[in-house]
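Weekly sync, protein design subgroup
Attendees: M.S., D.O., the rotation student, P.L. (late)

Item 1: inverse folding check
M.S. brought a backbone from last month's batch and wanted to see whether the design step gives back something sensible before we order anything. D.O. pointed out we never logged the input encoding, so this time it goes straight into the notes. Structure tokens as presented (59 positions):
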């Protein structure tokens, strides 16, 4: 697999706050509000595992 393909696959696994439908899906999957998701992504970055841990600790 080429380096570009690996980068694209890794990028697809990150939390993106835009478009709105993707933000809503992440909120549904993580069980949080949009404000909580935005705060978590700002604090720990776009990695779903880090965001999940951050949200769990915040509760």
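Designed sequence read out in the meeting:
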């Amino acid at each position: 697999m080429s380096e570009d393909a690996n980068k694209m696959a890794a990028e697809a696994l990150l939390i993106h706050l835009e478009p709105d439908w993707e933000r809503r899906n992440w909120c549904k999957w993580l069980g949080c509000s949009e404000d909580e998701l935005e705060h978590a992504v700002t604090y720990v970055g776009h990695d779903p595992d880090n965001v999940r841990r951050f949200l769990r600790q915040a509760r």
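Discussion: The two ends are 40 Å apart (CA to CA). Residues 39 and 51 are 9 Å apart (CA to CA).
Action: P.L. to compare against the previous round before Friday.
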